[in-house]
Design a protein that fits this description.
96 residues, alpha+beta, five-stranded antiparallel beta sheet, 33% strand, globular
Length: 96
């Protein structure tokens, strides 16, 4: 490296202008469930909320069934149908 001081100066400025975003549900698993005639049945789990929601939406569009995504703390609940989706952020004290 030709100019370590220059690199450190650049890195410091870059980090100061970077906003670190932490997912609100860090460490939570997001469960996808399908609605059957016997109730909700788990199909899969994902660490990322966006991926779980995308999978549930695609599954619903493909097979016409109703899916829901919830996190392990039950503070997030999304329902997906062929007609669209709705999500709610729930108070964890009420959900427990």
């Amino acid at each position: 490296m030709r100019n370590p001081e220059g690199f450190l100066s650049f890195l410091t400025k870059a980090l100061e202008s970077t906003e670190l975003v932490h997912p609100p549900h860090l460490g939570s698993m997001f469960t996808i469930e399908v609605l059957t005639r016997h109730g909700w049945s788990q199909t899969e789990e994902h660490e990322q909320r966006d991926l779980a929601e995308l999978q549930a939406s695609l599954k619903s569009q493909a097979d016409g069934q109703t899916y829901r995504v919830s996190n392990s703390g039950l503070s997030t609940l999304c329902v997906f149908t062929q007609n669209g989706s709705s999500c709610w952020e729930l108070d964890s004290a009420v959900a427990a």
